[in-house]
Amino acid sequence: ADVIDLEWEVEYMHWSPDCIESVVMGINGRFPGPTINATAGDTINIKLTNGLHTEGVVIHWHGITQVGTPWADGTASISQCAINAGETFVYRFKVDKAGTFFYHGHFGMQRSAGLYGSLIVNEVAPKAEPVPKAILSYDGEFTLLLSDWWHQNVHTQEVDLSGVPLRFIGEPQAILMNGRGQFSCSAAAHFNKVKQCNYTATPQCQPQPLHVDPDKTYRIRIASTTALSSLNFKIQDHELKVVEADGNYVEPFSVDDLDVYSGESYSVLLRTKKTSGNYWISIGVRGRKSTTPPALTILNYSPVPWEKHPSSAPPVHPDWNDYSRSKSFSNKIKAPLDAEQKGYKSPPEKQGRRIVLLNTQHTVKDQIKWMINDISLALPSTPYLGAIKYSLNEAFSQDTLHENYSNPDYDITLPRNANAKISDAVYKLEYNETIDVILQNANMLNKNHSEIHPWHLHGHDFWVLGYGEGKFNGTDLETEFNTKNPPLRNTVVVYPYGWTALRFVADNPGVWAFHCHIEPHLHMGMGVVFAEAVDKIKEMDINNKAFMCGFTGDMFRESFGKK
Ligand code: C2O
Ligand code: CU
């Protein structure tokens, strides 16, 4: 295994992601940031310098479990202090498992500002003897990192979302593929009456075609770091075989199109046709009634020039509100039959502790907030990990949080109207405890509205035990849990007015965020924090450079004064 040494500087720069010049957060002069290409078992060592001048920064390595290095998880106020302007911080962690991952900012709404990039971990090459057999075989691969883009800057968005009354950020101006999209012009101009984009004037928004040869197999790695949008990926006249989800192999299955929620990643295998041609690749918005047009690029067979338009219009995506279609896709994702060979462990048969998390919206001092069990998460100024390591209990609320409905008769079909507050209290998990989480969706403040929320857990993969409609009512439904071949994931969606059940073992000492991956929802408090194996954290070696702020910072300065 290697050590991959990188030196990065984060900075604001002018860029035209959707053919309109904006300011984006880039790394080393690039947007999106550089792709990290590693092999399972490698150590990544990144010297990150904050060149933003007027704000802090952190980077989170989404899907990497950080076993033994919880201080490198890159979550401001949770695993570390934000890196001050002009300062450098070194992330050092191991990528222990092959898969499709990405990284992104995790301070304020910096992910929406464009701070993201791909992180690909390859399988260790099979040894030469006997016959080498890779887990997947393919002739070539592509990486597509999907995002959404607003012309409004994120500072304005943050103020709008916290305002009274709230001003919603609205639909994005463009969907981006590897940071490239088109606003008010189109790659398919002659089919949809929008003007042709001028890529000579703004090459930064020119789509990247996928160049392929006939009669071959390609792996396409797809990940979504959208701020808001649920997406659907489709290639004209081609089937896709799903083989990986969130860095875990799944039992392969074929689809015409696939839903990708923010925080998720997939690999699909594409078998090319025997003859050459050009075909549309389209990424459209689902799950909300959006005005944002799909992002388009071309599947280009050599030797046809990629600029030659396909002879028919881009494919049409399934209806935005066809949830039964989305659910049937989610339910197809299962652990592979040869699970053990592919690094799967089976879940423990029974849970040790069940935490029900009710997702609602409420107002606190006239501000609209997302609530989990009546609490809206506001992060403390001292990172939890340092506060726990040094037993600084005054750094955050020591309140005990609800683990079930505070009102058992609560009607999930009506808007919330109950006590609600803002807090930085955490759930404490015992070492090696088996945890079941039931994510329970409900009505938001508007009547007859319930939204999709893709929930992401740091520090773990979890088994998805199942999805259900309506209100989870306890043990009788447990018999429906899939404990036979549940897929391992790090992000899972909870559908409108439904519930999702997941299980994990608390075997990774650290402090881990668990939150909705929709950036404005997290900003409005939609998350919880798990403090896992507190006693082990106290004994653990952690990188003190991550904790030079807040109460931990004071502690270090005092002990320095005494010397
Ligand atoms: Cu990709 Cu806490 O997020
Ligand atoms: Cu959400």
Explain how this protein is built.
This protein has 563 residues and is mainly beta. The chain has 7 helices and 32 strands. Strands 10-9-12-17-14-15 form a 6-stranded mixed beta sheet, with no helix packed on it. β1 (3-15) and β2 (22-27) form a beta hairpin. The protein is globular, with a radius of gyration of 23 Å. The two termini are 41 Å apart. The model has no long low-confidence stretch (mean pLDDT 94). CU-O-CU linkage binds next to β5 and β31.
| Rg, Å, rounded | 23 Å
Structural category is mainly beta
- Strands of the widest sheet, in order across it, are 10-9-12-17-14-15
Number of strands: 32
Major sheet details: 6 strands, mixed
Which distinct ligands sit in these coordinates?
Answer: CU-O-CU linkage, copper (II) ion
Envelope shape: globular
Q: What is the terminal separation in angstroms?
A: 41 Å
- What proportion of the residues is helical, as a percent range? under 10%
Mean pLDDT: 94
Q: Give the count of helical stretches.
A: 7
Weakly predicted, low-confidence segments: none
EC number: 1.10.3.3
GO cellular component, one term: extracellular region
Catalytic activity: 4 L-ascorbate + O2 = 4 monodehydro-L-ascorbate radical + 2 H2O
Organism: Heracleum sosnowskyi
